[in-house]
Automatic annotation (TrEMBL):
Keywords: Isomerase, Pyridoxal phosphate. It comes from the Bacteria. It comes from Fodinibius roseus. This is Predicted amino acid racemase. Residues 9-225 form the Alanine racemase N-terminal domain. GO terms for cellular component: cytosol.
Length: 356
């Protein structure tokens, strides 16, 4: 049976790399845990790092974090749906927001729960996901400051999460300037400029991050060591904190191309045949995972002489050439994963998760 393994030591080393980097630059940060899909053992590993601040986009996951460590500051990292406002105030110390009606509801609920709910107001900086339009910013903040049980913790933005718009000095300087304008206009102090995510880390490493950016929300770099500018790995970090182990359930020498009349496969595609491969054979290994668990495009080969052919709903087909590695039924073949692939695996009840 396939399983996912988290390597505790590599996770800790990645954490200390980031924590040291942010401390040297006087930056606060929290770990975004949405990749873990509320898996209790993995959340405990993250909590044990000592971060003290964790972010998630599912209220059930934040509830688990609070059960594991009630003192951890939790942040709900998308504009809250109206039907979970009560739970957001109960389990999230803070939330990211863009809608006045939602903020009114949060304030009313916080009053009922005898709390003050912290918010970071997200600003649209070009990637066209969530964010208040910049021209409306002053009017927006004026109304938010009038809410009795809302504390404005910061101003923030998301880049690269929707259309791939990359952060740069100009955009982040603008974000910092908006914070200063709002503070002067309303005689308020806004502690955080949350302009940092994994995609922003290379700017910090190259000393190109404006000094006003003082808060990061990081997930992908912690678990994958990812440099989103180069699509490589940040020097000094691990890209294999998580690895997927898949079991061989059949291996045999077979033709390289199918025979018979071709129709559409379950994904609605028609196979593209290389006629030069007619008559050729290779060893094909069938593994115990499929599209139900992960899109094959999100798998990264670790073993040599392994080529992903394709998958069906619950089986993955590999071409292992002449099988010089000597794979047999019952053997395990490892893969690393891209972020979206790991997200699918974490969300699958069919894949066991373990820690080493």
């Amino acid at each position: 049976m396939a399983y996912l393994k988290l390597y505790r030591d590599k996770l800790r080393e990645n954490y200390h790399f980031l924590d040291d980097l942010f401390k040297r630059n006087d930056i606060k940060w929290g770990i975004t845990t949405k990749l873990l899909c509320g898996h209790e053992a993995y959340l405990k590993e993250v909590a044990d790092l000592g971060i003290g601040e964790m972010h998630d986009s599912r209220i059930s996951n934040l509830r688990k974090i609070k059960e594991i460590d009630p003192d951890t500051m939790t942040t709900y990292i998308k504009p809250p749906p109206r039907d979970i406002i009560e739970s957001v105030v109960k389990y999230a110390d803070a939330s990211l927001n863009t809608e006045l009606s939602t903020l009114h509801a949060l304030s009313e609920e916080a009053q009922k729960q005898e709390k003050v709910h912290k918010v970071i107001i997200m600003i649209e900086m070009g990637d066209l996901r969530e964010g208040v339009i910049r021209e409306n910013l002053i009017d927006f903040y004026e109304k938010v400051f009038q809410l009795s049980h809302i504390e404005v913790l910061g101003i923030g933005t998301n880049l690269n999460c929707m259309h791939g718009v990359m952060p740069d000095e100009d955009k982040l300087i603008q974000l910092s300037l908006y914070k200063q304008i709002i503070e002067l206009r309303f005689n308020k102090t806004i502690p955080l400029v949350s302009g940092g995510t994994t995609v922003t880390i290379p700017l910090l490493l190259r000393n190109q991050l404006p000094s006003g950016i003082n808060h990061f929300r990081v997930g992908e770099a912690l678990f994958f060591g990812k440099d989103l500018f180069t699509d490589g790995t940040i020097e000094g970090m691990h890209n294999d904190v998580l690895e997927l182990y898949t079991q061989v359930i059949e291996i045999a020498e077979k033709p390289k191309v199918p025979t018979g009349e071709l129709g559409k496969d379950p994904q609605g595609r028609t196979a593209d045949i290389d006629e030069e491969e007619y008559g050729e054979t290779s060893y094909r290994a069938i593994l115990d995972i499929g599209y139900l668990d992960i899109n094959p495009d999100h798998l990264i080969n670790v073993e040599e002489d392994v080529k992903i052919v394709d998958a069906s709903s619950d089986m993955l087909i590999l071409d292992v050439g002449d099988n010089t590695a000597g794979y047999e039924v019952g053997d395990f073949i490892r893969f690393r994963m891209k972020y979206m692939g790991a997200l699918g695996i974490m969300n699958s009840d069919y894949i066991d998760k373990m820690v080493e």
